[in-house]
């Protein structure tokens, strides 16, 4: 797997669009292979069984017995092989050369892959606790970008904030609400993008779940702070549940009790930018329960 990642990273580091496209395809192929690989079993499957397994959707827990996934997850724990970090570097380079249709397609592809990596390896979401990475997503929401990029950016933002209150606070501190609501109110913003932003606003107003404290493990210092931050997920089941000892917050950090913000507090923040609209959004959340009724 290291050799495959090495080839992909070499292409992603290139200054040539065709090579970057090839690198993105290589990463996509690797992720697809992990997600679509069947459960390890010594017996041979019939054609009907194989077809049935192929149709079934997999969750993280379903990958627990897959050696490829376990190897992938371990590699993502360090800076050298972390795919999300490499994709963010590539995304930054592509954004600086935006305005070109070919580059726009690469940006959308890159954002789609970042979403997939964050879902397969939730600890990588901690990369968005850094202002530079969060600002990158907010820059992609600007009207000068095409609607496809804006929509993909909103979805990536949701994935990066999901079950990560510390990322949500960074988003707020960087005037992320102003960026999102400005795009929502702009006449230049397309209907599809406004629909995605509406979904984001519903998501923003849902209760926050504290993150599971960072695992006490040896990490390459270059990986940066918090790369092993666990978000609530099925990862504990996948890797046996033990061994992840909570670490006490250090200087300059806050515990989850300080990081999370109530729905009422977030409503007050959002009211500054969308007065009179937030009450209707909350009413919809209570009435239609789009996220499984977690507000009930």
Structural description of this entry:
This is Cell division control 14, SIN component. It comes from Canariomyces notabilis. InterPro entries: Cell_div_Cdc14. Keywords: Cell cycle, Cell division. About 15% of the residues have low confidence. The radius of gyration is 20 Å and the shape is globular. The chain has a domain of about 150 residues. The protein is mainly alpha-helical.
What is this structure's SSE topology?
Blueprint: H1 2-12, H2 17-36, H3 47-55, H4 67-76, H5 83-96, H6 101-120, H7 131-140, H8 147-161, H9 165-173, H10 176-185, H11 191-204, H12 235-238, H13 256-259, H14 263-271, H15 278-288
Q: Would you tell me the structural class of the helices and strands?
A: mainly alpha
Poorly predicted runs:
213-257
Give the overall form: globular
Count of separate DSSP helical elements: 15
Radius of gyration: 20 Å
Overall pLDDT score: 79
Helix content: 55-70%
Sheet with most strands: none
Order of helices and strands: HHHHHHHHHHHHHHH
Strand content: under 5%
Number of strands: 0
CA-to-CA gap between the ends?
44 Å
Which features characterize this protein?
15 helices, 296 residues, mainly alpha, 0% strand
Question: Quick gist of this model?
Answer:
The protein is mainly alpha-helical. It has helices spanning 2-12, 17-36, 47-55, 67-76, 83-96, 101-120, 131-140, 147-161, 165-173, 176-185, 191-204, 235-238, 256-259, 263-271, 278-288.
